[in-house]
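hi! just following up on the protien thing from before. the input was this:
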Amino acid sequence: MKAIVFTEYGAPEVLKLKEVPKPKPKDNEILIKVYATPLNFGDTLVRKFNSITPKKFHMPFIFWFLGKLYFGFKKPKIEILGSEFSGKVESIGKNVKRFVVGDQVFGYRGPRMGAYAEYLCMNENDVVAHKPTNMSYEQAAAIPYGAIMALGSIRKANLKAKQSVLVNGASGGIGPIVVQLAKYHFDAIVTGVCGTPRIPYVISMGADKVIDYTKEDFSKNGETYDYIFDILGKCSIEMCKRSLKKNGSCLYVSFKMKQVFQMLWRSIAGNKKIVCVMVNENTKDLIFIKELIEAGKIKSIVDRCYRLEEAAEAHRYFESGNKQGSVVLTLYDEHNI
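and the predicted 3d structure came back as:
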């Protein structure tokens, strides 16, 4: 089968189209023919992990060190990127009960990656579910990780109707789903923060107001919120405190040890909480997300699609800062399936 392989860290050009062995499903696994796989922040991070220092990394040092052990210090141990996918079940192991051949599915592989390929195997109890009926393969592929993280983060907040929410980083992989869930599922009043090119995209996700961070510092405009969701850990503690209402909370989806210590301290003293969010990806949440999609409460916007062999070009565009929605590698034309 064909796959995008990288055997050295570096720029997008390290991504090469190669022939690799087609996997065979074990007794409790399904073999999935991949139709689409999106690019995400993790893909670009792992591709150039040799240049990512602990300071540049978006989580505490221990996570950086474990990542280096897992992905490789000098050269990649995981040679096929891609953690999200959609596709169709081609064959199943003899003990599989949740799926049958021909099922349309979508899912998340986590750090195992491997979705930049024509085929992959998943345990039937992994984070994989039937694809939403009202989404294309490209749209569905871009959903799992961001939606699971967004749902888990909002659950940590215990968000209620008509409460005010600010999403700092509203245009990435997780932020747009936080915006949609807060607005359409929890009936909150949502403000998104993003750069100039992505303002229309965040508005289309349902934000009541959008702040352009290149022109305005949200922490200095006098507005306060019940909850601040900081997707990439860009907000200082001081910024959050200025912008939170009494008894408000700032939830860091990415965080450093400084935020962890602040979380522990403010759990003892203070009426404004700091929460460092850790989410356990699971199948139950993915199935719930599928139901929300089919109920019209979550949508997915695809900015550009590239063929598998155009992975390097797709990575360049993803990192340009110009995307408005998901960037997806497509392996098959679903109209010809």
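The chain has a mean pLDDT of 92.
The CA atoms of residues 139 and 300 lie 5 Å apart.
cheers
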